[in-house]
Amino acid sequence: MRVQRWAELSLKAPFLVSLCGKRRPSSSHPQPWRHVCGFRSRSSSAVMAEEAKKLAAYAAVDNHIQNNQVVGVGSGSTIVYAVDRLGKLYCKCVCEGARQLILKHGLSLSDLDRHPELDVAIDGADEVDASLTLIKGGGGCLTQEKIVAGCAKHFIVIADYRKDSKALGQQWKKGVPVEVIPIAYVPVSRAIARRFGGEAVLRMAVSKAGPVVTDNSNFILDWKFEHAQNWKEVNTAIKMIPGVVETGLFVGMAERVYFGMEDGSVKIRDPPVN
Ligand SMILES: O=C(CO)[C@H](O)[C@H](O)COP(=O)(O)O
């Protein structure tokens, strides 16, 4: 589908569905969006976050993914809905964090060895600012997700309304995840705090003793920053600290973000035109 460049556009579900050219509302069915996409009636109360995730995921898949494409798939609770929607297509998925989910939906699983270039990648986010800078890594998969997104011709993000921010830190209070080589976590934590302020705290596991260990056998620091920064510069500078593997700052990567909104609409945000 042709990607149009709207600065920001809010679509009601029926219009969106018709825009996709896939499920044109039929006059014989007064509320087709309820039926086809599981949307709530527009007259009902505000949609819950879970339903908003689904709205965003379905719209993004319908608008950006076609049969026979190779698709990078992230992880998290929002991506579950995207995989559900992908289940109706024939495509190959490259994904580490949600392998079982991909297989469960009968989708074919591939990897970056066989497909180093992806047609599109789709993923959730913990927060999205006005410039489409993302915080990711709440689930600890930031490094693999950044690699997959970086291999894609188009990187599309899906989120519910709670992730929509003007500036990072407004909504997501847990800080920027930074994946570190285990022996380096104390020096890296001190270096980040000294250079950029705030506090970088070792993420502890919930159902086991000790720190969270990533899929790459590393630790995660959650950097609770104090104020807005130049995220591109900060991302580059943190990555230069010895022992840092990757940061959860995704700067200049997302091509479009779909937010499922409380009123049942889907809001699309593209990067600002400079
Ligand atoms: O970055 C991620 C995992 O590392 C997720 O994409 C992010 O945490 C969003 O998750 P959810 O869709 O559950 O809110």
Task: Explain what the structure shows.
The chain is α/β, with parallel strands linked by helices and 274 residues long. The protein folds into two domains: 8-165 and 252-269, Rossmann fold (3-Layer(aba) Sandwich); 176-247, ACT domain (Alpha-Beta Plaits, 2-Layer Sandwich), CATH 3.30.70. It contains eight helices and 15 strands. The protein has helices at 13-20, 32-37, 49-64, 79-86, 99-104, 142-150, 185-196, 231-239; strands at 8-11, 70-73, 92-94, 108-110, 118-123, 127-128, 134-135, 152-160, 176-180, 199-202, 219-224, 244-247, 249-250, 256-260, 266-269. The protein has an eight-stranded mixed sheet with strand order 1-15-14-8-5-2-3-4, sandwiched between helices. Strands 10-11-9-12 form a four-stranded antiparallel sheet. Helix 1 packs parallel to helix 3 (49-64). The longest helix is centred in the first third of the chain and has 16 residues, at 49-64. Bound molecules: ribulose-5-phosphate. Ribulose-5-phosphate is lined by residues 74-78, 123-126, 136-142, 145. Pfam families: Rib_5-P_isom_A. One of its GO terms (molecular function) is ribose-5-phosphate isomerase activity. Its EC number is 5.3.1.6. It catalyses: aldehydo-D-ribose 5-phosphate = D-ribulose 5-phosphate. This is ribose-5-phosphate isomerase.
Give the secondary structure arrangement, pairings included:
Blueprint: E1 8-11, H1 13-20, H2 32-37, H3 49-64, E2 70-73, H4 79-86, E3 92-94, H5 99-104, E4 108-110, E5 118-123, E6 127-128, E7 134-135, H6 142-150, E8 152-160, E9 176-180, H7 185-196, E10 199-202, E11 219-224, H8 231-239, E12 244-247, E13 249-250, E14 256-260, E15 266-269
Parallel strand pairs: 2-3, 2-5, 3-4, 5-8, 8-14
Antiparallel strand pairs: 1-15, 6-7, 7-13, 9-11, 9-12, 10-11, 14-15
Helix pairs in contact: 1-3, 3-4
Bound molecules: ribulose-5-phosphate (5RP).
EC number: 5.3.1.6
InterPro entries: NagB/RpiA_transferase-like, Ribose5P_isomerase_type_A
Pathway: Carbohydrate degradation; pentose phosphate pathway; D-ribose 5-phosphate from D-ribulose 5-phosphate (non-oxidative stage): step 1/1
